[in-house]
């Protein structure tokens, strides 16, 4: 970043030690301080405070310059070498921090812990005292400009069961220090990936010994979270318990509920890392709350990617289910909706409560509109409270609490006047009784045009504090005196270019251009004008009168800032004293936002309330894909709805229990993938309590949702597309239950025809006979449709296509029965393949169809028993083995040596 001589080194410290004699072998005091601080944080970029800038040196400067696109300069020497340097202004540091964190860097923020004037008083080569006050990492962000408004910013701590290298259990703590959320989990090894995919943490901390497991580390890295290893062993057991007791000021952990040792270890590790990164600041964290993973539909990472729930396969939000569903009007509501969507419920009573609330708002559009107007005026209270607790907040955060509380009271009063269902009645009662003392106090205390930083002052309203009003009057009157004095000095110096300015290091000074400055250095002007500083194109002076005025002004301005700082601290203390009530209020507003948004979506898109129970039902009438329909609607095109029936009977001794397995055939581009995905998305929507895009829907609760759709590879881990397909399919077959929903598309197409057909065949049999899940299985292996003869719960569906004058027309309709062909050549023609290639393909296809495989496959289906073990090969007879060995020899193609070796081999075989 470019510098000028005014701000290059405002503290006056000795940075250019290399200019002194023998400096090549010396380290200047300032650089010694920098290096000492840097040694304590080798894995971080060090933001070293110098005046109004954060400076970076050496390799940190090179990395920051490249990442941020700012100029890399050099200043002074260290051990004979130029010191690379770059810097960012403090007032814009959040923007630069955001870029650095997004690129995977960690930043140590080193602040000046004393006034530079105090260092100058000590004389000599004293440097300003500095210390690192915070480590900025992806999982510990709190600043509004560093956070995504609609996404939680989770830090996850992970521990494995103690004293067991092959442990089957993990403890996990998830904290969002920007909101205070603190949840703990226990999960099995096989479900760890699904839980991490649900949480989408920004950073994961774990012991180095745990991360030494390369398989586990690869699994943790799949979600894109930053991985932070810790080498201390004192975070577990009694140390973890003590950490929790000390943090919350408890005498016993009984008040936290029945937490397991894994949950305590994970929570203790999380708190230890937070303390390490936040130093003296203590985030306001809720007490850790146990979350039962089985309370939510389990959706693994691959399924979330395939279905594009919150992130598209390219990493974008647009085009996802969350994008199509989100009608929330507040940041907190958007985060809550994302959390609901990430963890659909399995409790039908809780689902019904949400449905009742959404139906209530759907039936009362006027109330819904009023509430959404009030909710839109409610700022992000939880994150504002989090910043205030960490002493990083400002006047606008206090205003957020004020406005949020007023909006909450209005929402509560509006709801209480109606007859809302149970879930909303509880919220209405709570919100309508909010104590208005705090928001009224904040309304009186805060001015209108609030600065972001409390140190800027001028945020307390006039009339709130009389001593403050008096100090401001003196300060503001002095400004008029300064203006008058500037006019007087212009006359004395015989120039209109004279200005009286101020900065934090020189105080008030007179500035003129270079030519006028040379004039003021000479008599008679130098008797009054005292030279202070020479710049590249200007000179600075002072006078005795100006110095006296500065003292009066400084005292008045400092007194005003001190009073405002005291008032700010009092208001923050009052707010933090009600943090539990404020958090409950924010949570209630966020839930209201989501429920009114779900009703808004249902009203606009014509969605209906599904019936959700504990059966194996899955009947969708005229279902639609919510994302595709939204995209088509924007283009003025209709969506073709389709039915789906996968319902079955619950287990027991009935051998025919389980859901249906629907095999879907038809050409590419006919809509198979859309049909598969839309039914999975409808199940998710139903279980978050939303209405769904269908004419009617009856869904038995899905415990686990699996999807294997599309093709991708994992070259970094040495996996081909087919290998990835098989790994994901294996996970499905090993975990799916009778209550699961399985979506499979084109299993076995990544290998040879008969290999792929065999794998797809075996997978279908296993799904039908062992998993018994409700399943949709799209395939181009038409031979598999004949399994209907042996698998009673298998149904054949096909995508309807019209062949009009040799051209294929996709109807996007699902019909009963099997497709007669795949129309692959027609699709290739539509894609623009050369005419000669298409015609040659038609010719080859005609020849291949002469050797139709359908009749042999039909016979094989009828003859081959399900899951019949292959008979062991009969023991080979010695005589037969010798005959086979002899038959394999070709004497005409053997050298004499090879023939002799073969003869000896036959002799040994005959003697054995």
UniProtKB/TrEMBL annotation:
Coiled coil: 539-566
One Gene Ontology molecular-function label: mismatched DNA binding
Entry keywords, A to Z: ATP-binding, Coiled coil, DNA damage, DNA repair, DNA-binding, Nucleotide-binding
GO cellular component, one term: cytosol
Ranges of residues in domain DNA mismatch repair proteins mutS family: 740-756
PROSITE patterns in alphabetical order: DNA_MISMATCH_REPAIR_2
Positions annotated to bind ATP: 666-673
Any single GO BP term: mismatch repair
Biased composition (Polar residues): 1-10
One Pfam family of this chain: MutS_IV
InterPro entries the UniProt entry points to: DNA_mismatch_repair_MutS, DNA_mismatch_repair_MutS-lik_N, DNA_mismatch_repair_MutS/MSH, DNA_mismatch_repair_MutS_C, DNA_mismatch_repair_MutS_clamp, DNA_mismatch_repair_MutS_core, DNA_mismatch_repair_MutS_N, DNA_mismatch_repair_MutS_sf
Key word rRNA-binding present: no
Superkingdom as given in the UniProt entry: Bacteria
Residue numbers spanned by region Disordered: 1-24
Function text: This protein is involved in the repair of mismatches in DNA. It is possible that it carries out the mismatch recognition step. This protein has a weak ATPase activity.
PANTHER family hit by this protein: DNA MISMATCH REPAIR PROTEIN MSH1, MITOCHONDRIAL (PTHR11361:SF34), DNA MISMATCH REPAIR PROTEIN MUTS FAMILY MEMBER (PTHR11361)
Family: Belongs to the DNA mismatch repair MutS family.
The protein's name: DNA mismatch repair protein MutS
Organism: Rhodoblastus acidophilus (Rhodopseudomonas acidophila)
Gene designation per UniProt: mutS
């Amino acid at each position: 970043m470019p510098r000028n001589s005014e701000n290059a080194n405002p503290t006056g410290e000795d940075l250019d030690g290399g200019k002194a004699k023998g400096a090549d072998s010396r380290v200047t005091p300032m650089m010694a301080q920098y290096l000492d601080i840097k040694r304590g944080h080798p894995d971080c970029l060090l933001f070293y405070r110098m005046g109004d800038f954060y400076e970076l040196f050496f390799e940190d400067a090179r990395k920051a310059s490249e990442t941020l696109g700012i100029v890399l300069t050099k200043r002074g020497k260290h051990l004979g070498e130029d010191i690379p340097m770059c810097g960012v202004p403090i007032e814009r540091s959040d923007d630069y921090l955001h870029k650095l964190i997004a690129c995977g860097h960690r930043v140590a923020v080193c602040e000046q812990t004393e006034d530079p004037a105090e260092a100058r008083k000590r004389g000599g080569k004293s440097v300003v005292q500095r210390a690192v006050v915070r480590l900025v990492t992806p999982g510990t962000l709190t600043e509004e400009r560093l956070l995504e408004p609609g996404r939680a910013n989770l830090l996850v701590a992970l521990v494995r069961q103690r004293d067991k290298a092959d442990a089957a259990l993990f403890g996990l703590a998830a904290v969002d220090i920007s909101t205070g959320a603190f949840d703990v989990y226990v999960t099995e090894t096989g479900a760890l990936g699904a839980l991490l995919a649900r949480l989408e943490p920004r950073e994961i901390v774990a012991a180095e010994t745990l991360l030494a497991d390369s398989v586990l580390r690869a699994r943790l890295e799949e979600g894109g979270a930053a991985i932070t290893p810790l080498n201390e062993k004192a975070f577990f057991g009694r140390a973890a318990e003590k950490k929790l007791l000390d943090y919350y000021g408890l005498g016993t952990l009984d008040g936290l509920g029945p937490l397991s040792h894994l949950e305590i270890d994970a929570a203790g590790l999380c708190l230890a890392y937070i303390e390490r990164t936040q130093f003296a600041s203590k985030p306001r964290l809720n007490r850790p709350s146990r979350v039962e993973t089985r309370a939510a539909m389990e959706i693994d990472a691959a399924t979330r990617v395939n279905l594009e729930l919150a992130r598209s396969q390219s990493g974008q939000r647009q085009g996802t289910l969350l994008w199509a569903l989100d009608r929330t009007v507040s940041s907190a509501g958007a985060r809550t909706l994302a959390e609901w969507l990430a963890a659909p419920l399995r409790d039908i009573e809780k689902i019904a409560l949400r449905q009742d609330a959404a139906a209530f708002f759907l039936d009362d559009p006027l109330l819904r509109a009023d509430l959404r107007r009030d909710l839109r005026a409610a700022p992000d209270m939880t994150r504002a409270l989090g910043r205030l607790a960490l002493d990083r907040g400002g006047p606008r955060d206090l205003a957020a609490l004020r406005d949020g509380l007023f909006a909450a009271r209005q929402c509560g009063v509006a709801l209480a006047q109606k007859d809302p269902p149970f879930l909303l009645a509880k919220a209405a009662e709570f919100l309508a009784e909010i104590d208005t003392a705090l928001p009224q106090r904040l309304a009186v205390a805060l001015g209108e045009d609030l600065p972001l930083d409390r140190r800027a002052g001028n945020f307390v309203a006039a009339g709130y504090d009389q001593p403050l009003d008096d100090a401001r009057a003196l300060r503001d009157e002095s400004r008029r005196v300064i203006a008058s004095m500037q006019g007087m000095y212009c006359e004395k110096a015989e120039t209109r270019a004279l200005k009286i300015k101020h900065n934090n290091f020189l105080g008030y000074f007179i500035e003129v251009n270079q030519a006028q400055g040379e004039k003021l250095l000479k008599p008679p002007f130098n008797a009054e004008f005292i030279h202070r500083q020479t710049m590249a194109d200007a000179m600075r002076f002072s006078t005795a009168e100006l110095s006296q005025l500065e003292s009066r002004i400084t005292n008045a301005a400092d007194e005003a800032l001190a009073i405002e700082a005291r008032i700010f601290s009092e208001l923050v203390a009052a707010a933090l004293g009600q943090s539990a009530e404020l958090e409950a209020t924010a949570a209630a507003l966020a839930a209201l936002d989501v429920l009114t948004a779900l009703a808004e979506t249902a009203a606009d898109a014509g969605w209906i309330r599904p019936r959700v129970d504990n059966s194996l039902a899955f009947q969708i009438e005229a279902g639609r894909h919510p994302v595709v329909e939204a995209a088509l609607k924007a283009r003025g095109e209709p969506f073709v709805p389709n039915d789906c029936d996968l319902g079955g009977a619950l287990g027991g001794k009935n051998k025919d229990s389980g859901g249906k397995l629907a095999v879907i055939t038809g050409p590419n581009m006919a809509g198979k993938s859309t049909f598969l995905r839309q039914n999975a998305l409808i199940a998710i929507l139903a279980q978050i309590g939303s209405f769904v895009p269908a004419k009617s829907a009856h869904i038995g609760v899905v415990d686990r949702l699996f999807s294997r759709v599309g093709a991708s590879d994992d070259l970094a881990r040495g996996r081909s597309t087919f290998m990835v397909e098989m790994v994901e399919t294996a996970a499905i077959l090993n975990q799916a239950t009778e209550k699961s929903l399985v979506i499979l598309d084109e299993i076995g197409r990544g290998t040879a025809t008969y290999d792929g057909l065999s794998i797809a065949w075996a997978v279908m049999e296993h799904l039908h006979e062992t998993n018994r899940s409700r399943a949709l299985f799209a395939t181009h292996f038409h031979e598999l449709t004949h399994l209907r003869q042996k698998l009673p719960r298998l149904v054949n569906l096909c995508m309807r296509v019209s062949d009009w004058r040799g051209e294929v027309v996709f109807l996007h309709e699902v019909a009963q029965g099997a497709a007669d062909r795949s129309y692959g050549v027609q699709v290739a023609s539509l894609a623009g393949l050369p005419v000669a290639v298409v015609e040659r393909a038609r010719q080859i296809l005609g020849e291949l169809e002469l050797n139709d495989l359908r009749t042999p496959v039909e016979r094989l289906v009828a003859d081959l028993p399900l899951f019949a073990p292959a008979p062991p090969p009969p023991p080979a007879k010695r005589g037969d083995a010798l005959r086979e060995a002899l038959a394999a020899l070709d004497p005409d193609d053997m050298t004499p040596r090879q023939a002799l070796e073969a003869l000896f081999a036959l002799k040994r075989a005959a003697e054995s």
